[in-house]
Amino acid sequence: MPIATINPATGETIKTFKPATDQEVQDAIARAYERFQDYRRTSYAQRAEWANATADLLEAEADETAALMTLEMGKTLASAKAEVIKSASGFRYYAENAEKLLADEPADAGKVKAAQAYARYQPLGVVLAVMPWNFPLWQAVRFAAPALMAGNVGILKHASNVPQTALYLADVIARGGFPDGCFQTLLVPSSAVETILRDKRVAAATLTGSEPAGQSVGAIAGEEIKPSVLELGGSDPFIVMPSADLDAAVKTAVTARTQNNGQSCIAAKRFIAHADIYDEFVEKFVEKIQALKVGDPTDPDVDVGPLATESGRDEVAKQVEDAVAAGAVARCGGERLDRPGWFYPPTVVTDITKDMALYTEEVFGPVASVYKAADIDEAIEIANATTFGLGSNAWTSDEAEQQRFIDDIEAGQVFINGMTVSYPELPFGGVKRSGYGRELAGQGIREFCNVKTVWIGKPDTADEKKVE
Protein backbone atom coordinates (compact mmCIF):
# COMPACT_ATOMS: atom_id res chain seq x y z
CA MET A 1 0.00 0.00 0.00
CA PRO A 2 1.41 3.44 -0.90
CA ILE A 3 1.87 5.99 1.86
CA ALA A 4 -0.84 8.38 0.77
CA THR A 5 -3.97 10.29 1.68
CA ILE A 6 -6.75 8.83 -0.46
CA ASN A 7 -10.25 10.18 0.10
CA PRO A 8 -12.40 7.07 0.70
CA ALA A 9 -15.57 8.97 -0.18
CA THR A 10 -14.33 9.52 -3.74
CA GLY A 11 -11.30 7.28 -4.27
CA GLU A 12 -9.24 10.37 -5.16
CA THR A 13 -5.56 10.41 -4.19
CA ILE A 14 -4.96 13.70 -2.40
CA LYS A 15 -1.31 13.51 -1.44
CA THR A 16 1.48 10.94 -1.54
CA PHE A 17 4.57 10.66 0.62
CA LYS A 18 8.01 9.15 0.10
CA PRO A 19 8.96 6.53 2.68
CA ALA A 20 11.76 7.41 5.05
CA THR A 21 15.15 6.17 3.89
CA ASP A 22 17.15 3.61 5.84
CA GLN A 23 19.43 6.39 7.02
CA GLU A 24 16.48 8.50 8.17
CA VAL A 25 15.19 5.54 10.16
CA GLN A 26 18.57 5.06 11.80
CA ASP A 27 18.81 8.77 12.57
CA ALA A 28 15.37 8.70 14.20
CA ILE A 29 16.26 5.72 16.40
CA ALA A 30 19.52 7.39 17.41
CA ARG A 31 17.73 10.64 18.21
CA ALA A 32 15.14 8.79 20.33
CA TYR A 33 17.75 6.78 22.21
CA GLU A 34 19.89 9.80 22.95
CA ARG A 35 16.88 11.84 24.08
CA PHE A 36 15.77 9.10 26.46
CA GLN A 37 19.00 9.37 28.45
CA ASP A 38 18.03 12.79 29.78
CA TYR A 39 14.26 12.73 29.28
CA ARG A 40 13.88 9.83 31.71
CA ARG A 41 15.17 12.12 34.46
CA THR A 42 12.63 14.88 33.90
CA SER A 43 10.08 15.38 36.67
CA TYR A 44 6.45 14.30 36.49
CA ALA A 45 5.50 17.95 36.95
CA GLN A 46 7.48 18.95 33.86
CA ARG A 47 6.06 16.13 31.75
CA ALA A 48 2.56 17.02 32.95
CA GLU A 49 3.08 20.62 31.85
CA TRP A 50 3.98 19.46 28.35
CA ALA A 51 1.10 16.93 28.26
CA ASN A 52 -1.46 19.56 29.29
CA ALA A 53 -0.09 21.98 26.70
CA THR A 54 -0.47 19.26 24.06
CA ALA A 55 -4.06 18.73 25.18
CA ASP A 56 -4.71 22.47 24.90
CA LEU A 57 -3.49 22.45 21.30
CA LEU A 58 -5.56 19.40 20.41
CA GLU A 59 -8.70 21.08 21.72
CA ALA A 60 -7.93 24.39 20.00
CA GLU A 61 -7.31 22.64 16.67
CA ALA A 62 -10.13 20.09 16.94
CA ASP A 63 -12.11 21.26 13.90
CA GLU A 64 -9.14 21.26 11.52
CA THR A 65 -7.84 17.93 12.83
CA ALA A 66 -11.26 16.32 12.57
CA ALA A 67 -11.52 17.43 8.94
CA LEU A 68 -8.13 15.86 8.25
CA MET A 69 -9.14 12.52 9.76
CA THR A 70 -12.42 12.53 7.85
CA LEU A 71 -10.51 13.18 4.64
CA GLU A 72 -8.04 10.36 5.29
CA MET A 73 -10.26 7.56 6.58
CA GLY A 74 -13.88 8.59 6.10
CA LYS A 75 -15.28 8.84 9.61
CA THR A 76 -18.01 11.45 10.08
CA LEU A 77 -16.93 14.90 11.15
CA ALA A 78 -18.82 14.61 14.43
CA SER A 79 -17.09 11.35 15.38
CA ALA A 80 -13.72 12.72 14.25
CA LYS A 81 -14.06 15.80 16.45
CA ALA A 82 -15.12 13.64 19.38
CA GLU A 83 -11.96 11.59 18.84
CA VAL A 84 -9.76 14.69 18.99
CA ILE A 85 -11.39 15.82 22.24
CA LYS A 86 -11.02 12.32 23.67
CA SER A 87 -7.35 12.34 22.74
CA ALA A 88 -6.89 15.57 24.65
CA SER A 89 -8.57 13.99 27.67
CA GLY A 90 -6.11 11.09 27.45
CA PHE A 91 -3.17 13.47 27.79
CA ARG A 92 -4.88 15.25 30.68
CA TYR A 93 -5.65 12.00 32.49
CA TYR A 94 -2.03 10.89 32.51
CA ALA A 95 -0.76 14.38 33.24
CA GLU A 96 -2.87 14.32 36.39
CA ASN A 97 -2.42 10.69 37.41
CA ALA A 98 0.92 9.34 36.16
CA GLU A 99 2.87 10.19 39.30
CA LYS A 100 0.27 8.46 41.49
CA LEU A 101 0.00 5.45 39.19
CA LEU A 102 3.77 4.97 39.18
CA ALA A 103 4.44 5.79 42.83
CA ASP A 104 6.75 3.46 44.75
CA GLU A 105 4.83 0.48 46.14
CA PRO A 106 6.01 -0.36 49.65
CA ALA A 107 6.45 -3.93 50.81
CA ASP A 108 6.51 -5.25 54.36
CA ALA A 109 10.10 -4.35 55.18
CA GLY A 110 10.08 -6.38 58.39
CA LYS A 111 9.04 -9.57 56.59
CA VAL A 112 12.05 -9.29 54.28
CA LYS A 113 14.43 -8.15 57.03
CA ALA A 114 15.00 -4.73 55.54
CA ALA A 115 14.98 -1.15 56.69
CA GLN A 116 13.06 -0.33 53.51
CA ALA A 117 11.61 -2.44 50.71
CA TYR A 118 9.52 -1.33 47.78
CA ALA A 119 8.91 -1.65 44.04
CA ARG A 120 9.81 1.28 41.80
CA TYR A 121 8.50 1.82 38.27
CA GLN A 122 11.09 3.08 35.80
CA PRO A 123 10.78 3.66 32.03
CA LEU A 124 12.24 1.13 29.61
CA GLY A 125 13.38 3.49 26.82
CA VAL A 126 12.49 3.67 23.14
CA VAL A 127 9.11 2.05 22.38
CA LEU A 128 7.95 1.31 18.83
CA ALA A 129 4.22 1.81 18.24
CA VAL A 130 2.60 0.22 15.17
CA MET A 131 -0.86 1.73 14.91
CA PRO A 132 -4.01 1.28 12.74
CA TRP A 133 -6.05 3.77 10.75
CA ASN A 134 -9.50 3.35 12.27
CA PHE A 135 -8.93 5.70 15.23
CA PRO A 136 -5.87 7.40 13.81
CA LEU A 137 -5.43 9.90 16.64
CA TRP A 138 -6.91 8.27 19.75
CA GLN A 139 -5.31 4.90 19.11
CA ALA A 140 -1.86 6.48 18.94
CA VAL A 141 -2.52 8.82 21.87
CA ARG A 142 -3.53 5.99 24.18
CA PHE A 143 0.03 4.75 23.69
CA ALA A 144 1.78 8.12 23.53
CA ALA A 145 0.26 9.78 26.60
CA PRO A 146 1.11 7.06 29.16
CA ALA A 147 4.45 6.25 27.53
CA LEU A 148 5.64 9.86 27.60
CA MET A 149 4.35 10.47 31.12
CA ALA A 150 6.20 7.34 32.31
CA GLY A 151 9.45 8.73 30.90
CA ASN A 152 9.64 6.58 27.78
CA VAL A 153 10.09 7.95 24.26
CA GLY A 154 8.15 6.78 21.22
CA ILE A 155 8.57 6.02 17.54
CA LEU A 156 5.28 5.78 15.63
CA LYS A 157 4.84 3.66 12.54
CA HIS A 158 1.28 4.52 11.58
CA ALA A 159 -0.98 3.01 8.93
CA SER A 160 -0.03 4.07 5.41
CA ASN A 161 -3.42 5.61 4.64
CA VAL A 162 -3.35 8.19 7.47
CA PRO A 163 0.08 9.81 7.01
CA GLN A 164 -1.03 13.38 7.64
CA THR A 165 -2.72 12.49 10.92
CA ALA A 166 0.44 10.62 11.94
CA LEU A 167 2.62 13.62 11.17
CA TYR A 168 0.20 15.93 12.95
CA LEU A 169 0.45 13.93 16.18
CA ALA A 170 4.24 14.16 16.29
CA ASP A 171 3.99 17.85 15.48
CA VAL A 172 1.42 18.70 18.15
CA ILE A 173 3.41 16.80 20.79
CA ALA A 174 6.50 18.80 19.85
CA ARG A 175 4.57 22.07 19.94
CA GLY A 176 3.26 21.08 23.36
CA GLY A 177 6.85 21.33 24.58
CA PHE A 178 8.11 17.77 24.65
CA PRO A 179 11.81 17.82 23.70
CA ASP A 180 12.99 16.86 20.23
CA GLY A 181 13.19 13.09 19.85
CA CYS A 182 10.57 12.25 22.50
CA PHE A 183 7.97 11.27 19.93
CA GLN A 184 8.65 10.79 16.22
CA THR A 185 6.51 9.65 13.32
CA LEU A 186 8.28 7.55 10.72
CA LEU A 187 6.52 7.18 7.38
CA VAL A 188 7.69 3.69 6.49
CA PRO A 189 6.10 0.55 5.05
CA SER A 190 5.29 -2.45 7.21
CA SER A 191 8.43 -4.14 5.94
CA ALA A 192 10.53 -1.68 7.97
CA VAL A 193 9.04 -2.73 11.31
CA GLU A 194 11.34 -5.73 11.79
CA THR A 195 14.52 -3.68 11.34
CA ILE A 196 13.34 -1.08 13.84
CA LEU A 197 12.21 -3.62 16.42
CA ARG A 198 15.42 -5.65 16.20
CA ASP A 199 17.55 -2.56 16.82
CA LYS A 200 19.21 -2.88 20.24
CA ARG A 201 18.29 0.70 21.07
CA VAL A 202 14.57 -0.10 20.85
CA ALA A 203 13.30 -1.54 24.13
CA ALA A 204 9.73 -2.64 23.42
CA ALA A 205 6.80 -2.55 21.02
CA THR A 206 3.05 -2.10 20.97
CA LEU A 207 0.77 -2.95 18.07
CA THR A 208 -2.90 -2.64 17.29
CA GLY A 209 -3.85 -4.34 14.06
CA SER A 210 -4.51 -7.63 12.34
CA GLU A 211 -3.67 -11.10 13.59
CA PRO A 212 -0.87 -11.59 11.01
CA ALA A 213 0.68 -8.26 11.99
CA GLY A 214 0.45 -9.18 15.65
CA GLN A 215 1.97 -12.60 15.06
CA SER A 216 4.88 -10.99 13.25
CA VAL A 217 5.59 -8.31 15.85
CA GLY A 218 5.04 -10.71 18.75
CA ALA A 219 7.43 -13.26 17.23
CA ILE A 220 10.16 -10.69 16.60
CA ALA A 221 9.77 -9.22 20.08
CA GLY A 222 9.97 -12.73 21.54
CA GLU A 223 13.14 -13.53 19.64
CA GLU A 224 14.69 -10.26 20.78
CA ILE A 225 13.36 -10.79 24.35
CA LYS A 226 11.55 -7.47 24.36
CA PRO A 227 8.14 -6.82 25.91
CA SER A 228 5.20 -6.19 23.63
CA VAL A 229 1.52 -5.32 23.89
CA LEU A 230 -0.82 -6.60 21.17
CA GLU A 231 -4.43 -5.68 20.44
CA LEU A 232 -5.62 -7.68 17.45
CA GLY A 233 -9.29 -6.95 17.05
CA GLY A 234 -12.45 -8.65 18.15
CA SER A 235 -15.79 -10.12 17.19
CA ASP A 236 -17.64 -8.79 20.19
CA PRO A 237 -20.97 -10.27 21.33
CA PHE A 238 -23.98 -8.13 22.27
CA ILE A 239 -26.41 -10.25 24.28
CA VAL A 240 -30.01 -9.20 24.95
CA MET A 241 -32.07 -11.06 27.55
CA PRO A 242 -35.85 -10.86 28.18
CA SER A 243 -35.47 -8.63 31.25
CA ALA A 244 -33.55 -5.98 29.31
CA ASP A 245 -34.90 -2.57 28.38
CA LEU A 246 -35.38 -3.62 24.77
CA ASP A 247 -35.73 -0.17 23.25
CA ALA A 248 -32.56 1.03 25.00
CA ALA A 249 -30.73 -2.12 23.93
CA VAL A 250 -31.78 -1.71 20.28
CA LYS A 251 -30.81 1.97 20.21
CA THR A 252 -27.40 1.17 21.67
CA ALA A 253 -26.99 -1.82 19.37
CA VAL A 254 -27.31 0.41 16.30
CA THR A 255 -24.64 2.77 17.57
CA ALA A 256 -22.44 -0.11 18.74
CA ARG A 257 -22.44 -1.69 15.29
CA THR A 258 -22.19 1.41 13.08
CA GLN A 259 -19.87 3.66 15.10
CA ASN A 260 -16.84 4.71 13.06
CA ASN A 261 -18.63 3.34 9.98
CA GLY A 262 -18.53 -0.10 11.56
CA GLN A 263 -14.73 -0.10 11.77
CA SER A 264 -13.99 -0.46 15.46
CA CYS A 265 -12.24 -3.30 17.22
CA ILE A 266 -14.65 -3.06 20.16
CA ALA A 267 -17.75 -2.50 18.07
CA ALA A 268 -20.44 -5.07 18.80
CA LYS A 269 -20.52 -7.40 15.81
CA ARG A 270 -22.54 -10.46 16.85
CA PHE A 271 -25.97 -9.79 18.33
CA ILE A 272 -27.42 -12.61 20.41
CA ALA A 273 -31.08 -12.28 21.39
CA HIS A 274 -32.95 -14.61 23.71
CA ALA A 275 -35.67 -16.57 21.89
CA ASP A 276 -38.43 -14.87 23.89
CA ILE A 277 -37.56 -11.42 22.46
CA TYR A 278 -35.66 -12.42 19.30
CA ASP A 279 -38.34 -11.51 16.75
CA GLU A 280 -39.10 -8.17 18.36
CA PHE A 281 -35.40 -7.35 18.65
CA VAL A 282 -34.74 -8.14 14.99
CA GLU A 283 -37.73 -6.12 13.82
CA LYS A 284 -36.76 -3.04 15.82
CA PHE A 285 -33.06 -3.42 15.01
CA VAL A 286 -33.59 -3.72 11.25
CA GLU A 287 -35.98 -0.77 11.26
CA LYS A 288 -33.41 1.52 12.91
CA ILE A 289 -30.51 0.25 10.79
CA GLN A 290 -32.50 0.93 7.62
CA ALA A 291 -33.18 4.48 8.78
CA LEU A 292 -29.48 5.38 8.86
CA LYS A 293 -28.29 7.80 6.22
CA VAL A 294 -25.22 6.76 4.23
CA GLY A 295 -23.18 9.35 2.38
CA ASP A 296 -20.57 12.10 2.44
CA PRO A 297 -18.98 12.00 5.92
CA THR A 298 -18.60 15.80 5.90
CA ASP A 299 -22.40 16.14 5.76
CA PRO A 300 -23.64 16.62 9.35
CA ASP A 301 -26.84 14.70 8.53
CA VAL A 302 -24.96 11.56 7.47
CA ASP A 303 -24.78 8.66 9.94
CA VAL A 304 -22.45 6.30 8.09
CA GLY A 305 -19.62 7.22 5.75
CA PRO A 306 -17.44 5.06 3.52
CA LEU A 307 -15.10 2.33 4.61
CA ALA A 308 -11.52 3.50 4.84
CA THR A 309 -10.06 1.39 2.03
CA GLU A 310 -11.26 -0.27 -1.13
CA SER A 311 -9.83 -3.62 -0.06
CA GLY A 312 -11.65 -3.33 3.26
CA ARG A 313 -14.95 -2.65 1.51
CA ASP A 314 -14.40 -5.61 -0.82
CA GLU A 315 -13.62 -7.94 2.08
CA VAL A 316 -16.80 -6.97 3.94
CA ALA A 317 -18.86 -7.47 0.79
CA LYS A 318 -17.35 -10.90 0.21
CA GLN A 319 -18.04 -12.02 3.77
CA VAL A 320 -21.73 -11.14 3.43
CA GLU A 321 -22.04 -12.56 -0.08
CA ASP A 322 -20.49 -15.88 0.99
CA ALA A 323 -22.83 -16.18 3.98
CA VAL A 324 -25.95 -15.39 1.91
CA ALA A 325 -24.86 -17.88 -0.75
CA ALA A 326 -24.63 -20.50 2.02
CA GLY A 327 -28.16 -19.79 3.26
CA ALA A 328 -27.95 -16.76 5.56
CA VAL A 329 -30.52 -13.98 5.13
CA ALA A 330 -29.68 -10.30 4.66
CA ARG A 331 -32.61 -8.54 6.35
CA CYS A 332 -31.40 -5.20 5.02
CA GLY A 333 -28.41 -3.99 3.03
CA GLY A 334 -26.14 -6.75 1.81
CA GLU A 335 -25.32 -5.30 -1.61
CA ARG A 336 -22.59 -2.90 -2.70
CA LEU A 337 -23.70 0.65 -3.39
CA ASP A 338 -23.41 1.89 -6.96
CA ARG A 339 -21.59 5.15 -6.30
CA PRO A 340 -18.03 6.48 -6.18
CA GLY A 341 -16.03 5.77 -3.08
CA TRP A 342 -15.84 2.76 -0.79
CA PHE A 343 -19.31 2.70 0.70
CA TYR A 344 -21.11 -0.33 2.08
CA PRO A 345 -24.68 -0.14 3.42
CA PRO A 346 -25.51 -0.95 7.04
CA THR A 347 -26.53 -4.60 6.92
CA VAL A 348 -28.27 -7.08 9.21
CA VAL A 349 -27.73 -10.80 8.58
CA THR A 350 -29.65 -13.63 10.27
CA ASP A 351 -29.91 -17.43 9.94
CA ILE A 352 -26.15 -17.85 10.26
CA THR A 353 -24.94 -21.39 10.90
CA LYS A 354 -21.74 -22.67 12.48
CA ASP A 355 -20.32 -23.83 9.16
CA MET A 356 -20.33 -20.27 7.77
CA ALA A 357 -17.18 -18.17 8.12
CA LEU A 358 -19.35 -15.28 9.30
CA TYR A 359 -20.08 -17.25 12.48
CA THR A 360 -16.55 -16.73 13.85
CA GLU A 361 -14.88 -14.07 11.70
CA GLU A 362 -14.57 -10.39 12.56
CA VAL A 363 -16.41 -8.19 10.03
CA PHE A 364 -14.76 -4.78 9.88
CA GLY A 365 -17.66 -2.82 8.49
CA PRO A 366 -21.31 -1.95 9.25
CA VAL A 367 -22.58 -5.54 9.20
CA ALA A 368 -24.49 -7.03 12.15
CA SER A 369 -24.83 -10.79 12.59
CA VAL A 370 -27.88 -11.77 14.64
CA TYR A 371 -28.35 -15.07 16.50
CA LYS A 372 -31.16 -16.65 18.53
CA ALA A 373 -30.35 -18.22 21.91
CA ALA A 374 -32.72 -20.52 23.76
CA ASP A 375 -31.35 -19.59 27.19
CA ILE A 376 -28.43 -17.95 28.95
CA ASP A 377 -26.24 -21.01 28.51
CA GLU A 378 -26.62 -20.96 24.75
CA ALA A 379 -26.14 -17.19 24.69
CA ILE A 380 -22.78 -17.57 26.43
CA GLU A 381 -21.85 -20.49 24.18
CA ILE A 382 -22.48 -18.40 21.07
CA ALA A 383 -20.67 -15.42 22.60
CA ASN A 384 -17.56 -17.52 23.21
CA ALA A 385 -17.68 -19.31 19.84
CA THR A 386 -14.91 -17.18 18.36
CA THR A 387 -11.14 -17.07 18.55
CA PHE A 388 -11.37 -13.44 19.68
CA GLY A 389 -11.97 -12.09 23.17
CA LEU A 390 -11.74 -8.29 23.25
CA GLY A 391 -14.98 -6.67 24.44
CA SER A 392 -18.55 -7.78 25.13
CA ASN A 393 -21.97 -6.40 26.00
CA ALA A 394 -24.87 -7.98 27.86
CA TRP A 395 -28.28 -6.49 28.53
CA THR A 396 -30.27 -7.79 31.48
CA SER A 397 -31.76 -6.45 34.69
CA ASP A 398 -31.36 -9.82 36.41
CA GLU A 399 -28.39 -9.62 38.80
CA ALA A 400 -27.74 -13.35 38.68
CA GLU A 401 -27.56 -13.21 34.87
CA GLN A 402 -25.25 -10.21 35.08
CA GLN A 403 -22.82 -12.19 37.23
CA ARG A 404 -22.97 -15.16 34.84
CA PHE A 405 -21.98 -12.91 31.96
CA ILE A 406 -19.22 -11.24 33.97
CA ASP A 407 -17.81 -14.60 35.03
CA ASP A 408 -18.29 -16.67 31.88
CA ILE A 409 -17.85 -14.46 28.82
CA GLU A 410 -14.32 -14.90 27.50
CA ALA A 411 -13.28 -11.30 26.95
CA GLY A 412 -11.03 -8.60 28.31
CA GLN A 413 -14.03 -6.36 28.93
CA VAL A 414 -17.67 -6.92 29.85
CA PHE A 415 -20.14 -4.02 29.73
CA ILE A 416 -23.54 -4.64 31.30
CA ASN A 417 -26.47 -2.57 29.98
CA GLY A 418 -24.17 -0.29 28.03
CA MET A 419 -21.88 -0.06 25.02
CA THR A 420 -18.23 -1.06 25.18
CA VAL A 421 -16.13 2.12 25.20
CA SER A 422 -12.47 2.79 25.94
CA TYR A 423 -11.84 5.16 28.84
CA PRO A 424 -8.46 6.44 30.11
CA GLU A 425 -9.56 5.33 33.58
CA LEU A 426 -10.17 1.66 32.62
CA PRO A 427 -7.71 -0.97 31.35
CA PHE A 428 -8.21 -1.91 27.71
CA GLY A 429 -7.21 -5.18 26.05
CA GLY A 430 -8.28 -8.71 25.27
CA VAL A 431 -7.71 -12.42 25.64
CA LYS A 432 -7.45 -15.34 23.23
CA ARG A 433 -6.45 -14.15 19.74
CA SER A 434 -7.41 -10.58 20.53
CA GLY A 435 -3.92 -10.22 21.96
CA TYR A 436 -2.26 -9.63 25.31
CA GLY A 437 -1.23 -6.82 27.59
CA ARG A 438 -3.28 -3.76 28.48
CA GLU A 439 -3.53 -0.15 27.43
CA LEU A 440 -4.91 2.74 29.51
CA ALA A 441 -5.43 3.13 33.26
CA GLY A 442 -2.66 2.07 35.64
CA GLN A 443 -2.09 -1.23 33.89
CA GLY A 444 -1.39 0.55 30.60
CA ILE A 445 1.21 2.98 31.89
CA ARG A 446 3.06 0.18 33.70
CA GLU A 447 3.35 -2.07 30.60
CA PHE A 448 6.54 -0.36 29.50
CA CYS A 449 8.13 0.09 32.89
CA ASN A 450 10.79 -1.89 34.69
CA VAL A 451 9.28 -2.94 38.01
CA LYS A 452 12.46 -2.64 40.04
CA THR A 453 12.65 -4.28 43.47
CA VAL A 454 14.48 -2.12 46.01
CA TRP A 455 15.77 -3.63 49.27
CA ILE A 456 17.68 -1.52 51.76
CA GLY A 457 19.18 -3.46 54.66
CA LYS A 458 19.46 -2.54 58.29
CA PRO A 459 23.01 -1.68 59.37
CA ASP A 460 22.91 -4.32 62.11
CA THR A 461 21.92 -7.15 59.74
CA ALA A 462 24.54 -6.58 57.07
CA ASP A 463 26.52 -9.64 58.13
CA GLU A 464 23.58 -12.03 58.45
CA LYS A 465 23.57 -15.07 56.21
CA LYS A 466 20.77 -14.94 53.70
CA VAL A 467 19.07 -17.57 51.59
CA GLU A 468 17.96 -16.74 48.04
Brief synopsis:
This protein is an alpha/beta fold.
Q: Can you describe this structure?
A:
Residues 3-454 form the Aldehyde dehydrogenase domain. Keywords: NADP, Oxidoreductase, Tricarboxylic acid cycle. One of its GO terms (biological process) is tricarboxylic acid cycle. GO terms for molecular function: aldehyde dehydrogenase [NAD(P)+] activity; succinate-semialdehyde dehydrogenase (NAD+) activity. There is one protein chain. This protein is of the alpha/beta class and 468 residues long. It is built from 14 helices and 18 strands. The chain has helices at residues 22-39, 44-60, 62-73, 77-101, 138-150, 163-175, 193-198, 211-224, 246-258, 278-290, 310-325, 376-383, 399-408, 441-446, and strands spanning 4-7, 12-16, 105-106, 116-123, 126-130, 153-157, 183-185, 202-208, 228-231, 236-240, 268-274, 329-332, 347-350, 367-373, 393-395, 415-416, 435-436, 449-456. The strands form four sheets. A seven-stranded mixed sheet has the order 12-13-14-11-10-15-16, with helices on both faces. Strands 7-6-5-8-9-17 form a six-stranded mixed sheet, with helices on both faces. Helix 2 packs antiparallel against helix 4 (77-101). The longest helix has 25 residues, at 77-101. The N and C termini lie far apart (54 Å). The mean pLDDT is 97.
